[in-house]
Input
Amino acid sequence: MADSRRVRNTALGIFSALFLILAPSAATAADGETAPARDPKQAIDEPYTAKIQKYTTAPYFNSPLVNYLPSSNTVPTPEAVLGDIAGAPGVLPYAEDVYKYMRMLEKASPRVKVFSIGTTEEGREMIAVAVSSPENLKNLEENRARLVKLADPRTIKLDDSEADKLVGQAVPVYYITGTIHSPETGAPTALMELAYRLTVDESPYIQEIRDGMITLITPVVEVDGRDRMVDIYRWHLAHPKDFYPPLIYWGKYVAHDNNRDAMGVTLKLTENVLNTYVGWKAQVLHDLHESVPYLYDNTVGDGPYNAWVDPILTDEWQMIGARNVADMTKFGMPGVFTHGDFDTWSPGYLMFIAAMHNGISRLYETFGNGGADTQERTLDPEEYSRTWFRQNPPLPKTLWSQRDNNNYEQTGLLTSLHYFNENKRLFLKNFYLKAKRSVMKPAAEGPAAYVLPADEPRPGLQAELLRVLQKQAVEISRAKSAFTVSLPVKKEKPKKDTKDTKEADKKKKPEPTTRDFPAGSYIIRMDQPYARIADALLDHQYWSPDDPQKTPYDDTGWTFGELFGVQVARVTDLKVLDMAMERVVNVHAPGGVKGDGAVFAINNNAEPALATLRYKMKDAAMEAAEEQFDSSGKKFTRGSLVIRKVSRADLDRAASDLGLQVVALGTAPSVKTHPVRAARVAFVHTWLSTQTEGWWRLALDDLKIPYDYISTQTIAKIDDLNAKYDVILFPPVGYSPGPTAIINGMTTAWGNPLPWKNTPETPNLVGKNDSTDDMRPGLGWDGLAKLQTFVQKGGVLLTATDTSRFATEIGLVTGVSAHASERMKIVGSVLGTRLVDGASPIAYGYEEKVAAYCDNGPIFSLSSIAGARGRRRLGNESHTRATGRGTADDPDFTVGRPATEAPEELTSEIWEAPPVTDEQRRNGFRVIPPANRARVIFRYADKKDLLISGLVEGGDEIAQRPAVVDVPAGKGHVVLFSINPVYRGETRGTYSMVLNTILNFDSLDAGRKLAEK
Ligand SMILES: [Zn+2]
Output
């Protein structure tokens, strides 16, 4: 900043893209750049500037870019709304106040435009604020037309010289998003002030940004959560001596996971940001967070990088990240770095919308106090240590303010914007090149397309998967006629077995094969600009246990076709692109009633819409067939619905809406059936965390399955749970709190109550969720007794992952134990499971093999002896005999007696309880009677088939173990899941395991075969 470099004329079109490509790296491009310095001719807002100095706790926590505020006669500063400056202690505005200010800016200056970009689940508005020169804002549509062409090179026939012209004319869009994570509170005020600076500052450095590009700002991404956070903070200001309630809810459904939704796009905030990013054809999506001191530009992070991004992007990360660190380090700001422990494998992060749509994803972690208090903060040694990538580490102990945070955020953003503008022709050309390389993908690296066959047995789930892709702006086509493609020869890995198998391998060389697809099959062409996101979602993932990265940041596998339970073929044969096909705008599974008769049947293929239909048609009589049957020339699987007492017209309408194919039958099938009822469902959450259960609520709400949402505290207060409910769902708490934490909650032995309810101080806390006078108490022993009674009297309790551990460890079930493993490492992966008992209603509609989401178990073991821990198998199979005389299969002897054969040992499968021995039956009061024993519905696949996508290390510990178990308890059942069947909108193929349990709650024993002894 000390050197006064001449202001370079960056007028449009001066630099050809060719020049920039030939130019050396960005690091040397600084020559001729405008230095960051204020315009001495422009007056500063003295009182505002004085407060900046006052609230900044050390001079090195500021920079020459933001240590002053330029004044304006016409444009109000953030003080107009905040009553103080941005980042002032004690000041945290609601989203509404932030919007009010942005709209004041819009009114006061032709350099600002505010756009409404949609609403949240609770109906709050989301906005995007564009700041640029009046000319740029006037020509938005014209500019967008240019960007559209660069974003879709097919429109200019992949003509590079045409692209160069557009690159020379287009104004790029840099999109910044703030406070998706509600306890990370600094971004809204930082972005208010940033918008002001970009609007009024006349320094050449800022002018260049304003004239050269469009800065687009969504100051609050998680609007519902922001308002709750501000409530909590105000409560804290009003009760300064009290502990304040932790932010148990952010958005309506999920908390921190709102930044893991960019694959499934199930949350409004994701959809709104995605539509804005893609609609504006922005080049960058830069998301602001606060969890690392002082500024971790985790854009570069660490490997492994997502395998589906263009390497051009990973180079851009390096360029921008390195320059960002360099600029801020030169300002003397400590603790700025860009490498770290964040890997960019999963595409679930909000910023990754850009990476998957040919832009540049960026993310800042800055430092924050979770509110606007100025506090002394002490860092962990790990946080302030010097590392190879953090040569200028943060200080071990410091006073930190929200203003410090705002200084870092704004300085980082301004240097980024300026650097981006300096190199915008390069980045715009890259934007085009990444799109072009996507279009050329089929012939370059492949695949040519993904095909979803028209004869898919689950057309409803297929349509849901296609709709996710459409939300992602992926084009979908449909084949006009049947076609055949050739499949590549899959090279078998050489077996390290014997010579015999090698010889055999040589003889049976794999032959090329073909695959036929019927007319109407869906084709997702890879020669389209957004092929990348489709490829990333539909492909398989493999994370090697030998990868140097030992702590994956998030899930390692997500293959959508597998998790949706629908067929997806990866086709490399380029011929597929020449098939006659048409673009599909609305994907809808065909549905309705066909045939004649007053009895109706729907084949069961585990489509969640069946449950929706049950609840929608409350008065219809529905039954499930306990065996498969043929009728009217059609085959119906076990669990198929037989429907009576319904008007054909009503059923036809409902079935069309839901994409369900109904067959009217002449006569009712003679097969054994049981009623399928609309169970009364209670959905239980803790006050410890609502993160993981939120995805279950979202799924049930989408499917229109009604439920009462109650907390563990409420259980004890209900006299007779059975009188109110048939099924209690207790989805995962989310961080394995252990059984005592669920019972005890947070301690009440000291401290003050932590209320979660609406008051004049906290008008937004509850929303449409739950409330309590004190979050601290848990289920309690009374509540546990109530749960136990509920099950004993005939209720069904359904648990998953950590709540399954709770149910086994606290003794709600007999004969099943659950344990975690230190050695096994399954980090959010897609695993194979196998159907064990297809006669169980829980399995209705499923086939032999089902893919499921698993995050390290738990590992279930079964026993037929009450109170016994199931056996654990570690390492290899046990051997057949003990040490002694003879060969491995010879009998031993007792001295003086002739050799005798030992009685045949009873064997069992890993997922089964070991058979009861004669010894155990002697006075066998602990032997669980056959009717009370656990029934395994699904098990994990064998070790070699376990991994479908992601990371599996030490998988032999969970291989073949039960994955879904139905445990009779008194007159009721506890259904335990080791997998998480409902997760992030990604696992729709396993939803029906939960829905089947609900609908068949009073017939779960259907088809059950008891052991003889
Ligand atoms: Zn965050």
